[in-house]
Design a protein that fits this description.
The structure is a single chain. The chain is mainly α. The protein has three domains: about 5-90, Fumarase C, Chain B, domain 1; about 95-130 and about 140-335, Fumarase/aspartase (Central domain) (Fumarase C, Chain A, domain 2), CATH 1.20.200; about 345-440, Orthogonal Bundle (Ribonucleotide Reductase Protein R1, domain 1). Helix content is about 60%, strand content about 5%. It contains 18 helices and six strands. The chain has a two-stranded antiparallel sheet with strand order 1-2. Strand 3 (about 175-180), helix 8 and strand 4 (about 205) form a beta-alpha-beta unit. Helix 6 (about 95-130) runs antiparallel to helix 7 (about 150-175) and helix 14 (about 350-360) runs antiparallel to helix 15. The radius of gyration is 30 Å and the shape is elongated. The two termini are about 55 Å apart. The mean pLDDT is about 95.
Length: about 450
């Protein structure tokens, strides 16, 4: 192989850490001055040099390519201020430097992603409010089960995303640990002040064991796991959109810009955005497996394998952020077609459970009631009738318990309104849900 620099190097992917690397180096330099490890004059020159590099980067200037971003910044600093720039690396190693950079970066990104998830939840709640009176079939095993409010269905995803946010909050706690000062693996003999550095960089905790600190990538794996569950939830919602758009369902429409046509079939409106999000989940799940495999069986402390931790982290992060931004816009455009959701509820005998509950309320053991209603449904199928089409006389063939009030239990809106248990699908319960999730979103 002729280009070993390309093989060993990480600049192509870790250059996005440039700004946080400079932030960490400024903090480290200030600590070196405070502890009198370097003199104030040298410290000031280093900080001015680092600040000038940071300003240039923000203007669009690119660092010359080196083995990695850390060496690239140090080399550029020395070019700008001379050999004094080399003092910046006193009492630290690239081992503790790189994991510090990744932690700072992920702390920032966790906050950004939490805010994007919050925005998605707000859209889901908005759509729930808009569709508070739309009744649709709920499914188990993808078979018609019981009627639910469309708002209730949408809010299920808002609660999933709430758990995703809470996982990120928890992940943040374990990311918020400063490893800088662990040096290569054994700490340093310089009289450093790690608490000062932690305060400057806004880290709540300091690592307790230098061997663990430089080799720990649990926080990164946990972050990618959080991204995996987030995109998993997005795929579930996308699958619903794909199904609901299908003319066999026809429950919703979305804007044309989230669909595409066929190269051969002019009538097609394919839900491509939802399908791409489903597909991207494979990449994010793969990122998690890649990162776990990198760390698996590594002896203490640092090993060069850990250089490969960043591509899966960045890939998972980028794809989930992109998918969230797309799904927010797609959901904004979502509209329910009430006539189709109503028509769909004529299929599948989805009032059957209510008939069994009716019998149970009239002192029939539920297991007996279940058997009676199963026979009623079989009778309907054999005679091509719906539950609403049966006469009271036909119901009485199965049980004399049935009275004419049974028909109010076959009305879909009444069925929904009766589900008043906490967390249920009645309008009253769903309005309570909306109030509760709005409180979370604040």
């Amino acid at each position: 192989m002729q280009n070993f620099d390309q093989f060993f190097g990480s600049f192509s992917f870790d250059n996005r850490l440039a700004e946080v690397d400079i932030t960490g180096s400024i903090a480290h330099t200030k600590m070196l001055v405070k502890t009198k490890i370097i003199n104030p004059s040298d410290g000031e020159k280093i900080i001015l040099g680092l600040t000038s590099i940071l300003k240039d980067l923000k203007k669009g200037w690119k660092l010359p390519k080196e083995e990695d971003i850390h060496y690239a910044i140090e080399k550029e600093l020395i070019r700008r201020i001379g050999s004094i720039g080399g003092k910046m690396h006193t009492a630290r190693s690239r081992n503790d430097q790189v994991t510090t950079d990744l932690r700072i970066y992920l702390k920032q990104e966790i906050q950004i992603i939490k805010n994007i998830i919050n925005d998605f939840q707000k859209v889901l709640v908005k759509k729930a409010v808009e569709n508070i009176d739309v009744v649709m079939p709920g499914f188990t095993h993808l078979q018609p089960a019981q009627p639910v409010l469309a708002a209730h269905h949408l809010l299920a995803y808002a609660w999933m995303m709430q758990r995703d946010k809470e996982r990120l909050v928890d992940c943040y706690k374990r990311t918020d640990v400063l490893p800088l000062g662990s040096a290569a693996l054994a700490g340093t003999s310089f009289n450093i002040n790690r608490q000062y550095t932690a305060n400057f960089l806004d880290f709540k905790n300091i690592s307790e064991n230098s061997l663990d600190a430089v080799s720990d990538r649990d926080f990164a794996a946990e972050f990618v796991f959080c991204m995996s569950l987030t995109i998993l939830h997005l795929t579930r919602f996308c699958e619903e959109i794909i199904l609901w758009m299908n003319p066999e369902f026809g429950y919703i429409t979305i804007d044309d810009r989230f669909t595409s046509g066929s190269s051969i079939m002019p009538q097609k409106m394919n839900p491509d955005c939802a399908e791409v999000i489903r597909g991207k989940s494979g990449r994010v799940f793969g990122d998690l497996i890649a990162l776990l495999t990198i760390v698996k069986s590594l002896p203490l402390a640092y090993n060069r394998d850990l250089q490969e931790d960043k591509p899966p982290v960045f890939d998972a992060l980028d794809n989930v952020k992109m998918c969230l931004e797309v799904i927010i816009e797609m959901t904004e455009s979502l509209k329910f077609v009430k006539k189709n959701t109503s028509k769909s509820m004529e299929k599948g005998f989805i009032a059957a459970t209510e008939i069994a509950d009716y019998l149970a309320r009239n002192n029939v053991p539920f297991r007996v009631a279940h058997s009676i209603v199963k026979d009623i449904v079989l009778y309907c199928r054999e005679n091509s009738k719906t539950l609403n089409e049966l006469s009271i006389e036909e119901y009485n063939k199965f049980s004399k318990i049935f009275k004419r009030d049974i028909f109010k239990y076959l009305d879909m809106k009444n069925i929904v309104d009766m589900k008043t248990s906490y967390g249920g699908t009645s309008k009253k319960s769903v309005l309570r849900q909306i109030k509760n999730i709005k409180r979370k979103l604040k």
